[in-house]
From TrEMBL, chains A, B:
InterPro entries registered for this protein in UniProt: ABM_dom (IPR007138), Dimeric_a/b-barrel (IPR011008)
UniProt name for this protein: ABM domain-containing protein
Residue intervals of the ABM domain: 2-64
Species per Swiss-Prot/TrEMBL record: [Roseibacterium] beibuensis
Cross-referenced Pfam families: ABM
Amino acid sequence: MINVFEVPEGRLSETISAWEAARDYLEEQPGYVSTELHRALAEDARFALVNVAIWRSVDDFMAASRAMAENDLFPEVEGLGVNPALYRVIEGAE
Amino acid sequence: MINVFEVPEGRLSETISAWEAARDYLEEQPGYVSTELHRALAEDARFALVNVAIWRSVDDFMAASRAMAENDLFPEVEGLGVNPALYRVIEGAE
C-alpha cells in the first residue's frame, strides 16, 4: 500500500502525528508487515510525505483500513490530500 | 527517490517501457542501489505507477538524473505527469 500525501503549508507535523496515530492502530492488525514514512527533502515538494506499507494480503489491508475508518482513527487534518492505493511491485532491480 | 506517475489513459505500457529505458541507464550510474516500480492494482488509481529507488547519496542521484536529462534518455510519453523527489525515511515500523 502506498499513500501519497498532499500536505497543506504549515500542517506537516500535524500530519505526521495523525499518521503515527493511524500506524499505532494498523500495526496491531492481522496481516500488517511493515511501513516506512518518507519525508521529502525539498520543502516545496508536491508530495511532502509518502508512506509505503507492506501487508500480507489485500483482504488484511482492506479489513484494517475499514476498521480504522469506522472507528475514526485517522485524526482530521484540514486540507490534507491522501491518496492510499494498493500496488504490487512489477519491476525491481538491484 | 520516489517518483509518482500520473499516467494518461491508454499510456501505461508505453510509460513502463520508458521507465525501463531510464532504469537501464540509471542502474549503471555510480551510487545506484536499487529500484522498485509499483503498479496500482486498481485501474482507476490516481497514480498508476510509483517508483521507489534507493541511491547512495543525493549527489549521486542528482548527477545521474542530470546526465539522463541531458542525453534525453527518458522517452517522451504524451500527457505523462512525473513527480520525482528525494525523500528520507523518517518513521518505520516492523
